[in-house]
Design goal:
The protein has 168 residues and is an alpha/beta fold. Helices cover 39% and strands 20% of the residues. The chain has a six-stranded parallel β-sheet with strand order 4-3-2-1-5-6, sandwiched between helices.
Length: 168
């Protein structure tokens, strides 16, 4: 699958353990964030975005994938692409998270896997660069602190992507 950067958006955001609600997606703050996220994705779709690239990590990434998948019933032309850092991304995850992840993988329109095996943080960095390099819009969940999300946002900003930043 080729990407038209002008109609492709990507996501970046924090893992569950870095979010104020942690793994409790029934928390009102998480529910509010999901509403804002859906609104921003629909705004992107109405602006011509049809392909969404997601890193498929625990937390914001999986929520983004689920949101796009749910919106596919209303917007038939949209696609969701999983950008996996490595084939073994979920090897250390809980059984519950593995099940959620593997179920999502079956619903994606395409999967791009950067490495076969985990080789360290480079996997994540290369995955993030792949997503940014193939997009013109980034929707991010960002708390303002240093880390992978900030680095990915900075990389996107340096390449001139449009940024939508949602506060957790």
């Amino acid at each position: 699958m080729e990407f038209d950067k002008n109609t492709t958006a990507c996501f970046t955001g924090h893992r569950s353990q870095k979010l104020p609600w942690r793994f409790n997606e029934e928390d009102e703050r998480c529910k509010n964030m999901k509403e804002v996220l859906q609104h921003e994705i629909e705004k992107a779709i109405q602006s011509g975005y049809a392909t969404f690239i997601c890193g498929m990590a625990i937390g914001f990434d999986m929520i983004c994938a689920e949101t796009v998948i749910a919106l596919k019933s209303r917007y038939k032309n949209i696609k969701i692409i999983g950008a996996l850092p490595c084939k073994t991304q979920d090897i250390k995850w809980s059984e519950k998270d593995k099940k959620r992840y593997r179920n999502l993988l079956t619903q994606l329109d395409d999967i791009r896997c950067i490495y076969d095996e985990y080789i360290g943080a480079e996997c994540m960095i290369e995955r993030n660069k792949f997503m940014v390099n193939n997009s013109s819009l980034m929707i991010a969940l960002f708390n303002g602190l240093s880390g992978g999300t900030k680095s990915t946002i900075d990389y996107a900003r340096n390449l001139g992507l449009k940024l939508v930043i949602i506060k957790p």
